[in-house]
């Protein structure tokens, strides 16, 4: 396997392994639009990183985490519908990012790679952020598995049973922000949420327990990355979108599966 493909496969696998289990909670809690909002903030992080001349990966993570905090804070006030608030912040952060990039006159930037990903251009530094961030999220997810499940099933009952619901919800939001930030290199701002939702939705058809669904989602994510990269290499198609298309095809095939 060429070194270019090996690095891309490692990066894609690192994202898929963590995006699958985390995506289960996105599906269970109906947080798809929430994920889109966070992903759009990543482009604002790119713009600020360029303007302030700081590491782009760090800028993306900080900006995504900041918007996650802002979202949680505004949602708790409940002064407007959640979908309205998410729509405002999603499109505003994306537009702010595009406007801010225009001020970086002396910097040449390929916006397509940020919007749709450029996994084949993954550097060793990008790989460090992806694998390090992914490991951190997986460890946190394992430690908070029971509180997260309890909160997802019934938040009020989980609160009565002594689970820290507010803190757990906050940490879940931060984990989503971190995964979106480190995964932007793989499928880009506009497609990253699909890498969490589609494998999880597919795994739901094959699974009987939450744990089984989380593992299956990770495996489907790995298959999507491998299939997408193979298709991209053979057909000369964009790698990030090819990964998402492969994930979608697996989902279509799963519709023929009937669970006993």
TrEMBL record:
Protein location: Cell inner membrane; Cell membrane
Question: What Gene Ontology terms for biological process does this UniProt record contain?
Answer: response to zinc ion; transmembrane transport; zinc ion transport
Instruction: Cite the Pfam families for this sequence.
Output: ABC-3
Checking InterPro entries in the record gives: ABC_BtuC-like (IPR037294), ABC_TroCD (IPR001626)
Q: Does the keyword Metal-binding apply?
A: no
GO cellular component: a single term:
ATP-binding cassette (ABC) transporter complex
| Statement: the UniProt record of this protein carries the keyword Membrane | yes
Query: Quick one: where is this thing mainly located?
Result: membrane
**Which superkingdom heads the taxonomic lineage of this protein's source?**
Bacteria
- How is this protein situated with respect to the membrane? Multi-pass membrane protein
- What are the record keywords, sorted? Cell inner membrane, Cell membrane, Ion transport, Membrane, Transmembrane, Transmembrane helix, Transport, Zinc, Zinc transport
- Annotated TM spans: 6-28, 40-73, 85-107, 127-150, 170-201, 213-233, 239-257
Q: What does this protein do?
A: Involved in the high-affinity zinc uptake transport system.
**Which family does the UniProt entry place this protein in?**
Belongs to the ABC-3 integral membrane protein family.
PANTHER family of this UniProt entry? ABC-TRANSPORTER METAL-BINDING PROTEIN, HIGH-AFFINITY ZINC UPTAKE SYSTEM MEMBRANE PROTEIN ZNUB
Provide the protein name.
High-affinity zinc uptake system membrane protein ZnuB
Upper taxonomic lineage? Bacteria, Pseudomonadati, Pseudomonadota, Gammaproteobacteria, Oceanospirillales
């Amino acid at each position: 396997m060429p070194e270019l493909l090996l690095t891309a496969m490692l990066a894609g696998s690192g994202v898929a392994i963590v995006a699958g289990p985390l995506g289960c909670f996105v599906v269970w809690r109906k947080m798809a639009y929430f994920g889109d909002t966070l992903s759009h903030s990543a482009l604002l992080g790119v713009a600020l990183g360029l303007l302030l001349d700081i590491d782009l990966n760090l800028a993306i993570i900080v900006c995504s985490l900041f918007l996650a905090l802002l979202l949680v804070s505004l949602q708790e006030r409940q002064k407007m519908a959640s979908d309205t608030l998410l729509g405002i912040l999603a499109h505003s952060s994306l537009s702010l990012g595009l406007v801010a990039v225009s001020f970086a006159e002396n910097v040449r930037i390929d916006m397509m790679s940020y919007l749709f990903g450029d996994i084949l251009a993954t550097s060793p530094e990008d790989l460090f952020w992806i694998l390090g961030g992914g490991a951190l999220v997986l460890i946190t997810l394992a430690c908070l598995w029971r509180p997260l499940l309890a909160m997802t099933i019934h938040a009020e009952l989980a609160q009565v049973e002594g689970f820290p619901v507010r803190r757990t919800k906050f940490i879940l939001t931060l984990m989503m922000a971190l995964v979106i930030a480190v995964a932007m290199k793989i499928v880009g701002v506009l497609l990253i949420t699909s890498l969490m939702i589609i494998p999880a939705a597919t795994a739901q058809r094959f699974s009987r327990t939450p744990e089984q669904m989380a593992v299956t989602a990770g495996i489907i994510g790995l298959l999507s990355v491998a299939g997408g990269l193979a298709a991209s290499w053979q057909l000369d198609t964009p790698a990030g979108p090819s990964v998402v298309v492969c994930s979608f095809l697996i989902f279509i095939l799963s519709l023929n599966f009937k669970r006993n």
